[in-house]
Design a protein that fits this description.
Elements lengths: L3 H7 L1 H9 L5 H14 L6 E5 L5 H10 L4 E5 L3 H9 L8 E3 L13 E7 L10 H11 E9 L6 E2 L10 E2 L2 H8 L3 E9 L10 E8 L3
């Protein structure tokens, strides 16, 4: 589905984001510490990141779970997608798709964990449920949401662009829309502690049966 936001991220604007957020070894320890804190020893064998960019978050998860985890990714930007596939820094992705989040090419309940980090906040409010419906659909056990927080939905100018950054209480959005999800933990990635993260809130949901 083409939207104003997907067109920007798929083109030059998305390419510039890659330059600002490239791979660096020093980021690994911070990312591993953050995701260890979030996942807290959960047994996970497969994970999908929607909007993975070059795969830094998948590097963190690969470091934590080693060869025991299968990594999947969805990314709409061509340059980021090619970086995911070239295995330049040792990232081993089971499969990646160059597409958006509105129609994920996976079966129902096909991955243990489905997550976004800094992705839902770049989706227009009228399209948000299309993406979260898909994330919940493909997740077998857990859904993780790592995004900017605001008590009230609000739009923020983002790198000079309008209609590209929308803050809200994403945790409440998930909990209100999906009765099958139970919030089992939540927290805050303080940039003073984790310089690679931009003061992001996170919510971890467990998918209930029935």
């Amino acid at each position: 589905m083409k939207t104003h936001q997907t067109e920007l991220w798929s083109g030059k604007f998305g390419d510039e984001y890659i330059k600002r957020n490239d791979f660096a070894e020093w980021k690994i320890d911070q990312g591993v510490e953050a995701f260890n804190r979030i996942l807290n020893g959960l047994e996970i064998e497969s994970v999908l990141e929607v909007g993975s960019n070059i795969g830094m978050n998948l590097h963190f998860l690969q470091k934590i779970y080693t060869a025991k985890i299968k990594l999947y990714a969805v990314e709409p930007n061509e340059k980021a997608y090619k970086t995911l596939l070239n295995n330049e820094h040792g990232l081993k992705v089971e499969k990646a798709w160059k597409c958006d989040s509105f129609n994920l090419p996976l079966e129902d309940s096909s991955v243990d964990l489905a997550f976004t980090k800094g992705v839902l906040m770049h989706i227009a409010p009228e399209n948000l449920s299309k993406s979260t419906d898909e994330l919940v659909r493909v997740a077998k056990r857990y859904v993780l949401c790592i995004e900017y927080f605001s008590h009230k939905p609000e739009e923020i100018l983002y790198h000079g662009q309008k209609c590209l950054l929308f803050k809200r209480d994403f945790g409440a959005f998930y909990q209100d829309r999906y009765t099958q999800l139970k919030c089992i933990n939540y927290g805050f990635l303080w940039q003073r502690e984790f310089s690679i993260f931009d003061d992001l809130n996170w919510w971890l949901f467990e998918k209930q049966e029935g």
